[in-house]
Amino acid sequence: MIRTMSISLGMLFGAAWLITGCGGDDSVGAPDGGGDVAVGPEAGLSEAGRDAAPVIPTVSSWVGTNVAGDMTRVDVSHQLAPFDTPSQQKDANGYPVAGASGKSATDVGFLLPSGTYKIAYKGDGKLDVSGIGKLTGGWNTVNGEQQNQVQITGTPGAFGGFLDLTITNSGNQSVHDVRILFPGFDYANAPTFLPQFTDLLKPFRALRFMDWEATNGSTMANWADRPTSTSFGASPFGEPLEHEIDLINETGKDAWLNIPEHATEDFIHRFAQFVRDRLDFARIDAARDKQGFTTPFRLIIEDSNEVWNGGFSANKTYLDAANAQPNKYTGTYGGTYGPSWMGQISDLMKVGKFHGDRIVTIGNIWKQEFGTLGKSSIVAPVLSGWALGAAFSDVSLRFIKDNYGDPKTYVTYVAIAPYFDADPTTTAALGTLFTSLNNDIVSMDAAFQDFKKLDAEYGVQIVAYEGGQSLTGTADQPIKHLAQHDQRMYDTYRAYLDFWKKHFGEALFMHYSLAGTPGIPEFISQYGYWGSIISVLEDPNQCGPNLPTLLGSESVDSVVHHCPKYRALSEYVPQ
Hints:
Distance between the termini: 32 Å
Shape: globular
Structural class: alpha/beta
Helix content: 25-40%
CATH architecture of the largest domain: Alpha-Beta Barrel
Strand content: 15-25%
Radius of gyration: 24 Å
CATH class of the largest domain: Alpha Beta
Strand order of the largest sheet: 18-16-15-14-13-12-3-20
């Protein structure tokens, strides 16, 4: 069974916040050894770090996270809907041009906490705020910027709380550079990221930006279409890449970036050049030295996401491309990896071969661009894997071997998603649910062994691009939700992560995902409980200790401030 969820609240309810789920699988696989193993006590340190006193690590050497969360940035305008002005009357950043007007209406009350936010804009036009927001006074001109405050009343647990911004321009008037700052931050020198967000990231080695890049179903092909940090509001193509790279510069974490399925070679070159030119390696080295990293910095580059998954558009995109060259991308599989049915799916084998060809192209481009700095070695191309068995990955690797040579020259990792779930017949009670979850973890052993053989054959390390619990569905939903906050979920996560480490050592494991959105209506939980903690604003020092063993009769609201998943993940430091 393949478990997938992809729901955009923006599409369903007009909300700017996107909740995008994983494409999980049942089994998983991976190889021996583990991790980007450091050699010697100073491996992974910068030159300055080698001269400093030893640092006790505050970051895991192998646990990472997919980046997603409710409140990540100080300026919440990045999460708002675009202005409804006709496109020909918008400037390059999405604002109405001089003399034009427009409205941004965003169902965001479920997301924003109530409080007083500072608001500012530049220009001589008029900006009105309504809906869940109310200006507290008149506008003041300070250093060429119009400044005010807006009282926002959140509507947690319900959709329909719209924040409306209306721009009215006449003549040559214009409004641009709108900012709405989270409570507690001033107009001057406001940081990009909420400190609560960067604090939550501290235990993790690597950050995967699949959700931030809106990878699943992306139609972006041209570099000019990408969202920028100066653009107003949310984009269907994800978050500004500037923010991704700024986050890496600030935290020093390894970066896992995704290439859109329709990206041209020109796009791939420009993407690599942009990242290369914006990364601040001195700042990254300093951050890593401070945290005691024991692994070298990596830029992990992935071709789209889950290209094997027929539920995502990349699968069809690549099948169509493979069918256009039938002699090059045949549907046959000559290997011996399982499961047997996987290698018999002709279309899947075609996609696997095309994907193998494409990841070589992508990896070569990124290594070429970073080679201009003498840093091609930090680029780590990753091949998509289906955790049910290694046949899909093997057909990709065989294609690379037959057409290019030794696969490990072109591919650093094969990545899988070892999600664990409960048998639907066991979810009516917490005790039977947790027993079933643990049984599912142990059942992964056969697939793990298959991937270990793949690693031994090709010398390409197995990692997890996603993973964790994957309870979904409407049946027994209150029990499934309570399970997310139970002591036994902590115990299950510890057993799960130890099981992974037993098979693959310190091979990179990317949990899905960082944080949830606590204000969403309960019915949305049927699509999954993906965050390791309910909100970026939750304090893990408060929600981690004293975890309860629940009866199953408690209300969800009474236990949501317990975070067993985040606690378990964070405890793999310095391991």
